[in-house]
TrEMBL record:
This is Acetyl-CoA acyltransferase. The active site is at C91, H353, C383. The keyword Acyltransferase applies. CDD domains: thiolase. Residues 5-266 form the Thiolase N-terminal domain. InterPro entries: Thiolase, Thiolase-like, Thiolase_C, Thiolase_CS, Thiolase_N. Residues 275-396 form the Thiolase C-terminal domain. Gene3D superfamilies: 3.40.47.10. PROSITE patterns: THIOLASE_2 (PS00737).
């Protein structure tokens, strides 16, 4: 029976998604091309062996439009014969790209695929692909006549219904920065990062090799001083139960970055002299309530564990995307995963959340973390707009 294995996984450093961010001068096509070329070079393969490039990208407009995967593949120097496609499952887009790649390999439709993702949120702002006016049509409005809410309000409602106090959200955020800083200081991210040479406006070239969003000097006092990010009078009147605890400090950062993984079969890896590093053990994708849209990670985790035949205690490391601290804490309370195994190297609150790249970035970190810790199984899950969620279990080889 065919399997799907990861033989290489690499990412760029993550830059702040603003005009002054370290990766802001880099066009998103070139940013994705950097990870694609790095994964090919590190594997040492003939790129003609690649059957497809599947890339996640959320805001597919402007510089990220018109099937960015194809242009990034060409920019990376892949042969013109290598096809490419771009997928959008919101924040889980590149995790879904991994699923599609692995499923195609297992089915025999592919022998080798690059699964990757990119988002340059400083150059292509989040939401800029959404047209003004009613973007959902008549039937969605009829099905949900009370109206849906933005993700920030969803996070507030999740926290309120769980009874999570502001202090706990800020403590989680502080731990994310501390863990990410410790991993950076100890060089744990170094093997997974492909430094990017960035040409500045004055023509000088700077090499970016570290994640820009980590704030080692932050404190509970500093986090407590931040104002609620989503408060407005209309929402407060509609949802009197909300305590307005979500801030820029306990939510994910707006970021730029890309990541890529090379996926093939064990047999093909042997033929090419490649070392399988992790097996793509089990997959799940679920739909959930689009109002409380961020709780899909809970049924997704349960489904992937059920499909895998594994128990919670079998999982050595968990990666739950830190879209909001409230989401991860809600998941943890429901699932019962030990806190020390969850986002052990920090997450999107500290590292950043370049939307379409995050699934592949997190999986790249998970592959390397399993190797460095000697763990066998890792579980990754991500909440996604619209009440969606992906979950994946990796087995270190």
């Amino acid at each position: 029976m065919r399997d799907a294995v990861i033989v290489e996984a690499v990412r760029t450093p993550i830059g702040r998604g603003r005009a002054t961010g370290s990766l802001a001068p880099v066009h998103p096509i070139d940013l994705l091309a950097h990870s694609i070329s790095a994964v090919v070079e590190r594997a040492g393969i003939d790129p003609a062996h690649i059957d497809d490039v599947i890339a996640g990208c959320v805001t597919q407009t402007g510089e990220q439009s018109a099937n960015i995967a194809r242009w990034a593949g060409l920019a990376a120097g892949l042969p013109e014969s290598v096809p490419a496609t771009t997928v959008d499952r919101q924040c889980g887009s590149s995790q879904q790209a991994v699923h599609f790649a692995a499923q195609g390999v297992i089915a025999g439709a592919y022998d080798m695929v690059v699964a990757c993702g990119v988002e340059s949120m400083g150059r292509v702002p989040m939401g800029s692909a959404t047209q003004p006016g009613d973007s959902r049509g008549v039937r969605i409005n009829e099905r949900y006549p009370a109206g849906l809410v933005p993700q920030g309000i969803s996070a507030e409602l999740i926290g309120a219904r769980r009874g999570t106090p502001r202090a706990q959200l800020d403590e989680f955020a502080l731990a994310s920065h501390q863990r990410a800083f410790a991993a950076t200081r100890e060089g744990l991210f170094t093997p997974e990062i492909a430094p990017v040479k960035v040409t500045q406006a004055d023509g000088s070239v700077v090499e970016v090799s570290a994640d820009e969003g980590i704030r080692p000097s932050t404190s509970l006092e500093a986090l407590a001083g931040l104002r609620p990010a989503y408060y407005d009078e209309a929402a407060a009147a509609r949802f009197p139960e909300i305590g307005w605890n979500v801030t820029a400090g306990n939510a994910s950062q707006i970021s730029d970055g890309s990541a890529a993984l090379l996926i093939t079969t064990s047999e093909r890896a042997r033929e090419l002299g490649l070392r399988p590093r992790a097996r793509l053990h089990s997959f799940a994708v679920v739909g959930d309530d689009p109002f409380l849209m961020l709780r899909g990670v809970i049924p997704a985790t349960r489904r992937v564990l059920e499909r895998s035949g594994l128990r919670l205690d079998d999982i050595d490391l968990f990666e739950v995307n830190e879209a909001f601290a409230a989401v991860v804490l809600d998941w943890q309370a429901e699932i019962g995963a030990p806190a020390e195994r969850v986002n052990a190297r920090g997450g999107a609150i500290a590292l950043g959340h370049p939307l379409g790249a995050s699934g592949a970035r997190i999986m790249t970190t998970l592959v390397h973390a399993l190797e460095q810790t000697g763990g066998r199984y890792g579980l990754q899950t991500m909440c996604e707009a619209g009440g969606l969620a992906n979950a994946t279990i990796l087995e270190r080889l």
